[in-house]
């Protein structure tokens, strides 16, 4: 039987999401057929407005409703301390752990030569510019404790040293098991890791 | 940190889907932030049009673009043979297995007293009406081989017997392991089950 177009169109979109295969996509689409139309409309609107109603912070590249983001514009935060994370979800995880009062810089990725992602393909030049222009005392590198995350951390540390800026570069404490995903760490582990950060030499 | 509303709105919708928890919903929403706007718009449209562009077949209650559905209006199909399934996805699975040339009846559920679903809460009265009004030679009951599926099959067989119609009532062959889901069975198992159907007494 050839496919039912309105259902197939949704299946195709759902299949484009990570972790959702063809079977699951089909199941979800048929499940959604049972929703009332106004629920489907709210869903559609949420998808359609997602990017329109969000901005990327011009300073730290976090995603928020306004730019600069609420963290960058919060005068209670210590802007001389920058925590570098891979993704906005990592930032959210650290915020939830509730131990950090500095600001952030979101790289939106890591250096990954195998996938052809170099330092200029992530928001790393912007970070170096910030270090040059802003009054930064400490740079906490909180990329994931994976191969790429470590390599990116090393690269940043080297670059900052080259620049000759008087910035203390630290790496988030290895309370996190190697290969784990920062986003899924529990709050205590994240707090510990924040406390246990150490100088990079 | 309070949540970012446009993202939270999408997270709420995604969380309403089966098998998607809060963490996954958040991941998906942030993943979708990287889509170009036109892709989000196609996605939104697929959600919004899903029900508008589909109809429930007035005869067999399958979901299709027109009513009667393409199976009911296909004159090459044997309309005196009705296969009863729980959901449109079960129908699709049987169509894929490619051994069946009759028509269908989709119940959209099973009798489930624990969830307060009785015979009149699914499309069962409509099935009995079809048996009375149409020229039916065989009724193949292909509900899932679960507790509720078996109970529903028994209920239908009893009802048809009560009606005194000269209809052969068969149950899909138990090539399927008990408790399994019809939708996920492989094509050969489904074909075998179709062939191995047996009289209900």
TrEMBL record, chains A, B:
<feature type="zinc finger region" description="C4-type">
    <location>
        <begin position="57"/>
        <end position="72"/>
    </location>
</feature>
<dbReference type="InterPro" id="IPR000093">
    <property type="entry name" value="DNA_Rcmb_RecR"/>
</dbReference>
<comment type="similarity">
    <text>Belongs to the RecR family.</text>
</comment>
<keyword id="KW-0234">DNA repair</keyword>
<keyword id="KW-0227">DNA damage</keyword>
<dbReference type="Pfam" id="PF21175">
    <property type="entry name" value="RecR_C"/>
</dbReference>
<dbReference type="GO" id="GO:0008270">
    <property type="term" value="F:zinc ion binding"/>
</dbReference>
<comment type="function">
    <text>May play a role in DNA repair. It seems to be involved in an RecBC-independent recombinational process of DNA repair. It may act with RecF and RecO.</text>
</comment>
<dbReference type="InterPro" id="IPR006171">
    <property type="entry name" value="TOPRIM_dom"/>
</dbReference>
<keyword id="KW-0233">DNA recombination</keyword>
<keyword id="KW-0479">Metal-binding</keyword>
<dbReference type="GO" id="GO:0006310">
    <property type="term" value="P:DNA recombination"/>
</dbReference>
<dbReference type="InterPro" id="IPR034137">
    <property type="entry name" value="TOPRIM_RecR"/>
</dbReference>
<dbReference type="GO" id="GO:0006281">
    <property type="term" value="P:DNA repair"/>
</dbReference>
<keyword id="KW-0862">Zinc</keyword>
<dbReference type="InterPro" id="IPR023627">
    <property type="entry name" value="Rcmb_RecR"/>
</dbReference>
<dbReference type="GO" id="GO:0003677">
    <property type="term" value="F:DNA binding"/>
</dbReference>
<dbReference type="Pfam" id="PF02132">
    <property type="entry name" value="RecR_ZnF"/>
</dbReference>
<dbReference type="Pfam" id="PF13662">
    <property type="entry name" value="Toprim_4"/>
</dbReference>
<protein>
    <recommendedName>
        <fullName>Recombination protein RecR</fullName>
    </recommendedName>
</protein>
<dbReference type="Pfam" id="PF21176">
    <property type="entry name" value="RecR_HhH"/>
</dbReference>
<keyword id="KW-0863">Zinc-finger</keyword>
<feature type="domain" description="Toprim">
    <location>
        <begin position="80"/>
        <end position="175"/>
    </location>
</feature>
<dbReference type="InterPro" id="IPR015967">
    <property type="entry name" value="Rcmb_RecR_Znf"/>
</dbReference>
């Amino acid at each position: 039987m050839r496919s039912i177009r309105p259902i197939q169109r949704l299946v195709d979109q759902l299949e484009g999401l990570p972790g959702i295969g063809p079977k699951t996509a089909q199941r979800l689409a048929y499940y959604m057929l049972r929703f009332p139309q106004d629920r489907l409309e709210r869903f559609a609107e949420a998808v359609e407005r997602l990017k329109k109603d969000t901005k990327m912070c011009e300073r730290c590249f976090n995603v928020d409703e306004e730019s600069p983001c609420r963290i960058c514009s919060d005068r209670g935060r210590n802007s001389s301390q920058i925590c570098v994370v891979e993704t906005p979800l990592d930032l959210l995880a650290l915020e939830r752990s509730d131990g950090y009062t500095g600001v952030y810089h979101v790289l939106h990725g890591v250096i990954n030569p195998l996938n052809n992602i170099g330092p200029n393909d992530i928001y790393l030049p912007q970070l170096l510019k910030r270090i040059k222009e802003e009054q930064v005392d400490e740079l906490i590198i909180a990329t994931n404790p994976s191969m790429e995350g470590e390599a990116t951390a090393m690269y940043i540390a080297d670059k900052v040293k080259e620049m000759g800026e008087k910035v203390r570069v630290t790496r988030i404490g290895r309370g996190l098991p190697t290969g784990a995903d920062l986003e899924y760490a529990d709050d205590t582990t994240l707090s510990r890791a924040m406390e246990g950060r150490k100088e990079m030499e």
